[in-house]
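Narrative of activities, Objective 1.

The group set out to show that a structural description can be obtained from nothing but a protein's sequence at a throughput compatible with the screening campaign. Below is one input-output pair from the validation batch, recorded exactly as produced.
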Amino acid sequence: GLYDEALAEYVRAQKLDPRDVVAVNGHAGVFKAMGLYDEALAEYVRAQKLDPRDVVAVNGHAGVFKAMGLYDEALAEYVRAQKLDPHDVIAVNGRAEVLKVMGCYDEALAEYARARKLDPHDVYALAGRAEVLKAMGGYGDALAEYNRAQTLAPRDVVVVSGRAGVFKAMAHYDDALAE
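Output recorded for this entry:
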């Protein structure tokens, strides 16, 4: 349904301007959302050929690798994105996310801290840090991070769900259900 419509619109935009990197990245993003990873990778590569400094394409490429479970490749792409733009919070958070999935918790915490330095209001970094702390068994610290995130984004579903998950892990079921 809507994916097909989105693909058609991005194709139309590319016909209007074949060098439109935004349309190529959007096209790739829809393919990624549909689980069509090879097609998404091809589009991100095409976007990078159009603009080798396009951090969105490099981050998108990394995200597809992450979704495919190709963590080393994803890390390499996020590093490449960070070299293109050292202030790109998406690349820093993406790298942290991959490290978290790989179980490299200390490295992930360091990356989330770096993301917070780049953007002190980054809810994604706070939530990611909380998830790492929870995975390490630091439930109180994880809850504190979620509380910080909740002050920035009170209705963020990731934050609310994350808090509930910490309460559940702590066997505070009533609090988990209240979230």
